[in-house]
Design a protein that fits this description.
Blueprint: H1 4-13, E1 17-19, E2 31-33, H2 35-54, E3 59-62, H3 71-76, H4 78-81, E4 84-88, E5 95-97, E6 117-119, E7 124-126, E8 136-138, H5 144-148, H6 151-157, E9 164-173, E10 188-198, H7 203-220, E11 228-232, E12 244-252, E13 255-266, H8 268-277, E14 283-285, E15 290-292, E16 295-302, H9 303-314, E17 315-321, E18 324-329, E19 340-344, H10 349-362, E20 368-370, H11 376-386, E21 390-394, H12 396-401, E22 403-408, E23 414-418, H13 422-430
Parallel strand pairs: 3-9, 19-20, 19-21
Antiparallel strand pairs: 1-2, 4-5, 4-6, 7-8, 9-10, 10-16, 11-12, 12-13, 13-16, 14-15, 17-18, 21-22, 22-23
Helix pairs in contact: 2-9
The protein binds zinc ion.
Zinc ion (ZN) binds at residues 89, 91-92, 94, 106, 108-109, 111.
Length: 434
């Protein structure tokens, strides 16, 4: 299996991910997505949106603000629940609330603890020119609350009946004590969340539905089955408001870790917001003529850790011949940052002209690259390393019969295709049928 160091090195070498503010020595746990990283990240978000919003009649989108009225965090429990003195075990890395410990050591393994500090996971800042308590606002620690506080707005304007969901992709911020493992755990991260509102009593069946939907999404996009598993939370790990929670875990280099959580949050959030806001957040059920607060199922995925999983899963250091190796990313074409690269076989004017014509046409559809430098073999390898699924080469035969070769990244086999057939050929292989 690939190591995290190899992935970090590839990401830097090929422009996927850089350390934030690197010329100043960086900033702990902050990362910048480079030209290829941002394309890949956008692809992941678009494919999530497509599967969960575009193709579903029962889910609509939202983009709520990062800064919210601080009362939101009072209602959600984030203000009180995250303001504890915390310390980490230096041995097993478990985090403990110091005020609940009998002795100042790890209750699990007896290891030494880090220094305790008052810890609220939320980033605090000030709104407006005066930095006093009344001006305190927080960077959201999850996108979910922006959805809950808009429940009535969305339900009424979209005239949605239960069951229906609201989806959102956006940045969240958590002042983690121990971030790490590259982009797996960072203090600034991006979430893809759905709050799916259902009639109480139907929640368990919808929970199952979403677990299945979500794991299939990863399968469809090429994650190997043996690297994904479902893990149900034990009663002791459940958040106080959750009735059940299931994690989709991926086998990262540091072991099985959470890729996505799918929780049954019951009616906790809407009930809290109804209480703190004084607004009626109940739903009127036409069929039963009853008013009630819906239950909610929440599939909550991380964009950054999905991207990391896709990279790790796709990575191969492959021996081709006795002394011939290549690094290849077997990314699903829909996820790959660059869909195709166009090459003139040689740097000859008539080949270059034709290749550029093809390149300029493909640009309208996808992110593609043009490359005329170095041997054709070297150019293929450069693309293999960034996961470009198709290499299109213009050669002398092209000038005679308008055909090009299309090389498959994974099999390295080539087929001849008419220029007019390039777009349909690529389209068929890039499109995902969810
Ligand atoms: Zn310990």
């Amino acid at each position: 299996m690939v190591t995290m160091d190899e992935i970090v090195a590839l990401c830097k070498r090929r422009g996927f991910i850089f350390q934030s503010s690197e010329i100043y020595g960086g900033l702990n746990s902050c990362w910048d997505y480079g030209p290829l990283g941002v394309e890949m990240k956008n692809n992941i978000k678009r494919l999530w949106w497509k599967a969960n919003v575009q193709l579903r009649d029962d889910v609509v989108g939202l983009d709520s603000s990062i800064l919210m009225n601080p009362k939101v965090w009072e209602a959600s429990g984030h203000l009180s629940n995250f303001a504890d003195p915390m310390a980490d075990c230096k041995v097993c890395k478990k985090r403990w609330r110091v005020d609940q410990l009998q002795e100042y050591k790890c209750p699990e393994c007896g290891g030494e603890l880090t220094e305790a500090r008052m810890f609220n996971l939320m980033f605090k800042t000030f709104m407006g020119p005066v930095e006093d308590e009344s001006a305190v606002v927080y960077l959201r620690p999850e996108t979910a609350q922006g959805i809950f506080v808009n429940f009535i707005n969305v339900q009424q304007t979209m005239r949605k009946k239960l069951p229906f969901g609201i989806a959102q992709i956006g940045k969240s911020f958590r002042n983690e004590i121990t971030p790490g493992n590259f982009i797996f755990r960072t203090r600034e991260f991006e979430q893809m969340e759905i709050e799916y509102f259902v009639k109480p009593g139907t929640d368990e069946q919808w929970h199952k539905h979403w677990i299945e939907q979500r794991i299939n999404w990863y399968y469809k996009l090429g994650i190997k089955k043996e690297n994904l598993r479902i893990r149900e939370h034990g009663k002791d790990e459940l958040a106080h408001y959750a009735k059940a929670c299931v994690d989709i875990e991926y086998l990262f280099p540091m072991g099985w870790s959470e890729l996505e959580g799918i929780a049954n949050r019951t009616d906790f959030d809407l009930t809290q917001h109804q209480k703190y806001s004084g607004e009626n957040l109940t739903y009127f059920d036409d069929e039963t003529k009853q008013r009630y607060i819906p239950y909610v199922i929440e599939p909550s995925a991380g964009v950054d850790r999905s991207l990391l999983a896709f990279l790790i899963d796709a990575y191969e250091y492959q021996q081709i011949d006795k002394d011939d190796f290549r690094v290849v990313l077997h990314l699903h074409p829909a996820i790959a940052p660059v869909k195709a690269a166009v090459f003139p076989l040689m740097k000859k004017e008539e080949l270059v002209k034709k290749a550029k014509e093809i390149y300029n046409e493909l640009k309208y559809k996808w992110i593609v690259q043009y490359d005329e430098s170095g041997s054709i073999g070297k150019r293929y390898r450069r693309q293999d390393e960034i996961g470009t699924p198709f290499g299109i080469t213009v050669d002398y035969q092209t000038l005679e019969d308008e055909t090009v070769t299309i090389r498959d990244r994974d099999t390295m086999e080539q087929v001849r295709v008419h220029i007019k057939e390039i777009i349909p050929y690529l389209e068929e292989r890039i499109e995902v049928k969810f």
